[in-house]
Amino acid sequence: NAGVTQTPKFQVLKTGQSMTLQCAQDMNHEYMSWYRQDPGMGLRLIHYSVGAGITDQGEVPNGYNVSRSTTEDFPLRLLSAAPSQTSVYFCASSYSTTGGAGGYTFGSGTRLTVV
Amino acid sequence: EDQVTQSPEALRLQEGESSSLNCSYTVSGLRGLFWYRQDPGKGPEFLFTLYSAGEEKEKERLKATLTKKESFLHITAPKPEDSATYLCAVQADAQGAQKLVFGQGTRLTINP
Q: Nearest C-alpha of chain A: how many angstroms from B43?
């Protein structure tokens, strides 16, 4: 089925470990982004990309790295996990960089716990 | 600073009892306002995009409206399957076109 695929769905890390959250879309969308969702707070933008080879920071980029080598994939790397990075992470994509009439398509999320 | 505030935080209705959810926003220049639905354990699902004051969009039992300061999501004769968290987000000039600012959401429960 067409859409945004995130892996893994659940992950537990120890403080200081690194890992990569995977995101892939098969809709040929140019725009991709990563959000985190915490209780009592709205979704907050971490990083985004408007096309292969182009990335930029969002509202809360510290502690995260991204790259965009292909149109389909947009992995999010945690360099040295901290308990403050415990959250649910969502990847989103869109045909238009402005979201447009069709909005963004979100993946089903990765629930990350850092202990 | 661009801000989005949704109210109420939670709303419990009986099946068939119509109501409205509110999204108030403060932005430097609105490019678009989005409504999403989110079910537990899932990602947000797109509902509507509104671009200018006076615009309205409808989908089944939902209707979204937009003024210069707020948006409403009207739910008419809701059913239990309408239970979800509803998220509002804005895209503003100052942020750059690629960025959305989300509200905290309204958790809606429809009792049969």
A: 4
Burial class of A9 by CB neighbour count within 10 A (0 to 12, 13 to 18, 19+): exposed
Best B33, B46, B87 member to test A by mutation, with max A CBs in 10 Å, is: B46
pLDDT at A96: 78
Closest residue, chain B, to A46 (C-alpha): B99
Residue B97: the pLDDT is 58
What is the CB neighbour count within 10 angstroms for residue A28?
A: 10
The 3-class SS string of chain A reads CCCEEEECCEEEECCCCCEEEEEEECCCCCEEEEEEECCCCCCEEEEEEEECCEEEECCCCCCEEECCCCCCECCEEECCCCHHHCEEEEEEEECCCCCHHHCCEECCCEEEEEC
Quick check: A97 contacting B, CB < 8 Å?
yes
Residues (pLDDT < 70) of chain B are 93-98
- What one-letter code names the amino acid at A26? D
For residue A99, give the chain B residue with the closest CA: B98
Q: pLDDT digits over B80-97, tens only? A: 999 999 999 998 765 555
Report the residue from A31, A42, A103 with minimal CB separation from B104.
A42
